[in-house]
């Protein structure tokens, strides 16, 4: 349910707009002047803000400039009964999402809200893409061994559904790539792919990260914050290293999966969510269940579909193809002409014990590109890759 703030000094306008929005199931709050509106927007996370232009104390343009300067990300829709083209153009130039003239038209309001919500989704997706584009540059699943072919076939079958998937495999084996492939081939591909590394977030912060928090829920919670479940609504939520999640967070994730609702930290209000959950772990969750560190009921909720990603040592025949793939990417990143591996270099790479899997292979290819000549030989691999005998 979207939360909307109305900033207008006319009570009748606020009331009329509230009735329209609440009838459409939006959650609405009001501010009777610009100062109050800025304060509310500073302390509360809104999805959309309606702001009148002509107001005492602080007019709408000042409110708009203040909110933009505070990096408020909610789309701001300006409304006015004294509008003209110049005013509308000025508002848009200063960062307003749209401009609506009074008297307010129901259809125009609803269309503008829909467009604003679409923009929010696109902005969030763009942020996620910017943080992952380098990581996933050339990220199609590379390999032709039986294990990889089976994974590709499984992804094609499972991706169009909303079935939850549990991906297992060693660190660096490519679990995240499988998760992204599931999203990219799904009906949710136009919506956000949100990733959470459960092992990288301190235990005391994981619930806030997943479910969000209300202002004042804890010392540093100075503003409402959406959690990853909310941000992934309509898209895919990837819970990486879920085996490291705390017992308290496990219980809340289980409820979210069972009921499709969450509660922000510090709130008792249920928020409906619609995110496909894909989880991954490098642990044996069956063993974790036996030793009391992972909930069996959560395991069964997550493991509707199981995909195991083989280690690089189990797919050595893919190493030449992977090495050449990374060679192309690394040479491009470093701005050098494409180098090549000699046959004996590829043989040497296949002899290495790849404890770090695909991630280690990529790092070694980058090392070889930096330290070696235009043709990387077997001796270069022996010298710089430190193969284990």
Automatic annotation (TrEMBL):
<dbReference type="Pfam" id="PF00158">
    <property type="entry name" value="Sigma54_activat"/>
</dbReference>
<dbReference type="Pfam" id="PF00072">
    <property type="entry name" value="Response_reg"/>
</dbReference>
<dbReference type="InterPro" id="IPR001789">
    <property type="entry name" value="Sig_transdc_resp-reg_receiver"/>
</dbReference>
<dbReference type="InterPro" id="IPR003593">
    <property type="entry name" value="AAA+_ATPase"/>
</dbReference>
<keyword id="KW-0597">Phosphoprotein</keyword>
<dbReference type="InterPro" id="IPR002078">
    <property type="entry name" value="Sigma_54_int"/>
</dbReference>
<keyword id="KW-0804">Transcription</keyword>
<protein>
    <submittedName>
        <fullName>Putative two component, sigma54 specific, transcriptional regulator</fullName>
    </submittedName>
</protein>
<feature type="domain" description="Sigma-54 factor interaction">
    <location>
        <begin position="141"/>
        <end position="370"/>
    </location>
</feature>
<dbReference type="GO" id="GO:0005524">
    <property type="term" value="F:ATP binding"/>
</dbReference>
<dbReference type="InterPro" id="IPR025943">
    <property type="entry name" value="Sigma_54_int_dom_ATP-bd_2"/>
</dbReference>
<dbReference type="InterPro" id="IPR027417">
    <property type="entry name" value="P-loop_NTPase"/>
</dbReference>
<dbReference type="Pfam" id="PF25601">
    <property type="entry name" value="AAA_lid_14"/>
</dbReference>
<keyword id="KW-0067">ATP-binding</keyword>
<dbReference type="GO" id="GO:0006355">
    <property type="term" value="P:regulation of DNA-templated transcription"/>
</dbReference>
<keyword id="KW-0902">Two-component regulatory system</keyword>
<dbReference type="InterPro" id="IPR011006">
    <property type="entry name" value="CheY-like_superfamily"/>
</dbReference>
<dbReference type="InterPro" id="IPR058031">
    <property type="entry name" value="AAA_lid_NorR"/>
</dbReference>
<keyword id="KW-0547">Nucleotide-binding</keyword>
<feature type="modified residue" description="4-aspartylphosphate">
    <location>
        <position position="52"/>
    </location>
</feature>
<dbReference type="GO" id="GO:0000160">
    <property type="term" value="P:phosphorelay signal transduction system"/>
</dbReference>
<keyword id="KW-0805">Transcription regulation</keyword>
<feature type="domain" description="Response regulatory">
    <location>
        <begin position="3"/>
        <end position="117"/>
    </location>
</feature>
């Amino acid at each position: 349910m979207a939360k909307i703030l109305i900033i207008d000094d006319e009570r009748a306008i606020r009331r009329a707009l509230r009735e329209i929005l609440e009838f459409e199931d939006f959650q609405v709050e009001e501010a009777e002047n610009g100062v109050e509106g800025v304060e509310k927007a500073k302390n509360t996370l809104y999805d959309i803000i309606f702001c009148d232009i002509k107001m005492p104390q602080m007019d709408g343009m000042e409110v708009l400039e203040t909110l933009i300067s505070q990096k408020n990300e909610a789309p701001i829709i300006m409304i006015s009964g004294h509008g003209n083209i110049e005013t509308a153009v000025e508002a848009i130039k200063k960062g307003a999402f749209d401009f609506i003239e009074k008297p307010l038209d129901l259809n125009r309001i609803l269309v503008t809200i829909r467009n604003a919500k679409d923009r929010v989704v696109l902005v969030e997706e763009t942020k996620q893409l910017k943080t992952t584009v380098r990581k996933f540059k050339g990220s199609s699943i590379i390999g032709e061994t039986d294990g990889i072919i089976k994974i590709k076939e499984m992804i094609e079958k499972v991706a169009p559904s909303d079935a939850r998937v549990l991906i297992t495999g060693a660190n660096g084996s490519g679990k995240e790539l499988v998760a992204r492939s599931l999203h990219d081939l799904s009906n949710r591909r136009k919506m956000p792919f949100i990733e959470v590394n459960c092992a990288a977030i301190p235990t005391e912060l994981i619930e806030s990260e997943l479910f969000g928090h209300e202002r004042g829920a804890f010392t540093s919670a100075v503003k409402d914050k959406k959690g990853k479940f909310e941000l992934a609504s309509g898209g895919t939520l990837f819970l990486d290293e879920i085996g490291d999640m705390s017992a308290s967070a496990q219980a809340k994730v289980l409820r979210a999966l069972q009921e499709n609702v969450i509660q922000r930290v510090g709130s008792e209000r249920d928020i409906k969510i619609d995110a496909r959950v894909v989880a991954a772990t490098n642990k044996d969750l069956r063993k974790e269940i036996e030793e009391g560190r992972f909930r069996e009921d959560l395991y069964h909720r997550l493991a509707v579909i199981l995909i195991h990603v083989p280690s690089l040592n189990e797919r050595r025949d893919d190493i030449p193809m992977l090495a050449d793939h990374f060679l192309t990417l690394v040479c491009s990143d470093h701005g050098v002409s494409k180098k090549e591996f000699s046959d004996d270099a590829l043989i040497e790479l296949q002899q290495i014990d790849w404890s770090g899997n695909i991630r280690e292979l990529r790092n070694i290819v980058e090392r070889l590109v930096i330290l070696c000549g235009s043709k990387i030989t077997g001796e270069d691999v022996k010298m710089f890759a430190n193969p284990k005998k």
